[in-house]
Structure of Pyridine nucleotide-disulfide oxidoreductase:
Amino acid sequence: MDYDLIVVGFGPAGIAAGLNASIRKKKVLIIGKKSKAIEKSPSIKNYLGFKDLEGKDLYQRFIDHIKEYPVEIMDKKIKAVYALGDYFSVDLGDKMLTSKTCILASGVDMGKSIEGEDKFFAKGISYCATCDASLYKGKKVVLVGLNDEAIDEANFINKLAKETIFINPKNEDLKLDSGIKIINKKPKEFIGDMKASSLILEDGEKIEADGFFIIKNSSKPQSLAPSVKIENGHIKVDSNMQTNIKGLFACGDIVGRPYQINKAVGQGQIAGLNAASYK
């Protein structure tokens, strides 16, 4: 077993969960990207003990706190978490890591899905290029870029694919490797039969491809852990932050509203304590 606990998500909920498990002498790994939403918040007035604080300052305090403990932090996006009886396997794309328990605290996807996105998830559509790009070696790939990470993902795909097309709905200046075609249009709909085969753009242009990637800040909850129970678009948990899968906990925005830092930290503590005591 690589770890006692792997926490997916490096926001307030994930940091609180990892901290509380580490205090109880558990070997903890937190996997996730820094929370852009908190860093960009100009003023937080309802966090107990602080009358008014910029989001980036509060978040830095969280990070400074967790770094005082022997918690490993990995700046990476995972592909999925698999429950394998007495332990969990976390798929990083290039390797697998195992843990006794796991906590999902990766936030929510605030953006509206592209039509057909949910229907064809894992059927020609992926959220992790470094995880699945090898499936399309020598093939045509379309990537919809919705965050800064998409640039590195597209460059990675381009080393393997025969043809790479970058859909740039924000019409931003991009520093992409040569050979990548950029289309400054918004995606409208994925179509296909058993799997996604084409992407329709806002002006009706149709792009056929072997595979599609959507790179954004967070993935759908159901894509993180197969068989986890979803209710109203969020992972369903009990008062202990336990999901329907034994040993798998969830906390923060991913389990529902309100999307508040206070609530995320509290739920993270509950999840961390229960994961640490899980038998």
In short: The CA atoms of residues 67 and 76 lie 17 Å apart. The chain has a mean pLDDT of 93.
